[in-house]
Write a structure and sequence with these properties.
alpha/beta, globular, UDP-N-acetylmuramoyl-L-alanine:D-glutamate ligase, four-stranded mixed sheet, 10 helices, 14 strands, eight-stranded mixed sheet
Length: 308
């Protein structure tokens, strides 16, 4: 299969994840498990794409510190071109702290992504050739509003399809002015409501929200609903894909795997309906792994998971 290239612009961080052995008790220490692994939405999507065989370039920033070196080393080992990533001695690498409950459901998270200020419009312009030659660009909303506008402008100028992950309800508003220029957006239910102004808490509401996003100018809208699966819509079709029934080991990274697999499918000519099914499969595989990215992700494993 001839694999076209993808450029991913977004955060690269170190993820620290904690899970208690039993029900959490507020205000005291809870015995449990703590794991550390490279993360960041953009970085995770890039590694998932590379592990599926897509030539992938990451545009991001890390600190000139042990965390940054670990993040770059792991990402490079996963097959991603990290040669264009900024390495700064002025800022520490980004970090993400997440706590899940005893059942693996997200409880709270804190991120420190200040270094992403270095991903400026000037930096994006300097890499315009990479963007121009890409089959698709994936962007996460950890970028500043100015950098987001710059990346969208470049993709629009060269007619390169752009996929955006809103990341969080705090960052999603940065995308609202640009929806008519976006090829695909992949929010969760809360982010979707921020983007289009209508609730998306169940599959019926989410379907309406996805169609609203298409009406606002998005070519393809995919709204993730955690254990309820996802819904998607284009101007020609819409549908729902149920989640695969698995035991969640670690919820971090599932959405990024889903995005990576959907992008993989679309740049290789798969239909939207098949691409989103690959995305659900990738998310399920990742949720059963202790890492933020499944270390043995492959197209064969995606299809095997779909048959379970």
């Amino acid at each position: 299969m001839n694999q076209p290239g993808v450029v991913v612009i977004g955060a690269a961080s170190l993820d620290m994840k904690g899970r208690p052995k039993s029900s959490m008790v507020a205000g005291t220490s809870n015995p449990g498990y703590i794991r550390v692994s490279p993360g960041g939405v953009g970085r995770n999507v890039a590694e998932n794409l590379a592990r599926l065989g897509v030539p992938t370039t990451l545009l991001s920033a890390v600190g000139d510190d042990s965390v940054g070196r670990q993040v770059l080393e792991t990402t490079r080992a996963g097959g991603v071109d990290v040669s264009r990533v900024i390495v700064s001695s002025d800022w520490p690498s980004a970090t993400y702290l997440a706590v899940v409950d005893e059942n693996g459901r997200p409880a709270l998270s804190i991120d420190d992504m200040q270094i992403m200020q270095l991903v400026t419009p000037k930096y994006i312009y300097a890499h315009r050739r990479w963007i121009k030659e890409a089959s698709m660009v994936v962007l996460d909303a950890n970028l500043s509003p100015a950098a987001i506008a710059s990346a969208i402008s470049a993709c629009t100028k060269w007619n390169v399809p752009l996929c955006i992950d809103p990341v969080s309800i705090a960052l999603a508003p940065r995308l609202r002015p640009h929806l008519s220029q976006v090829y695909m957006v992949i929010p969760n239910e809360d982010e979707a409501e921020v983007l289009c102004g209508i609730p998306a808490s169940d599959s019926f509401q989410a379907s309406a929200a996805a169609q609203r996003l298409v009406a606002l100018g998005v070519d393809t809208a995919v709204i993730t609903l955690a254990e309820k699966g996802l819904v998607y819509a284009t101007s020609d079709e819409s549908g729902r894909v149920p989640a695969i029934n698995i035991e969640v080991v670690d919820p971090t990274g599932g959405g990024d795997a889903l995005t990576g697999a959907i992008v993989f499918g679309l740049v290789n000519g798969f239909s939207v309906s098949e691409a989103v099914r690959l995305g659900v499969s990738a998310a399920a595989l990742t949720l059963t792994s202790t890492g933020t990215v499944h270390p043995h992700l492959s197209l064969e494993k995606l299809y095997d998971q779909l048959m379970i």
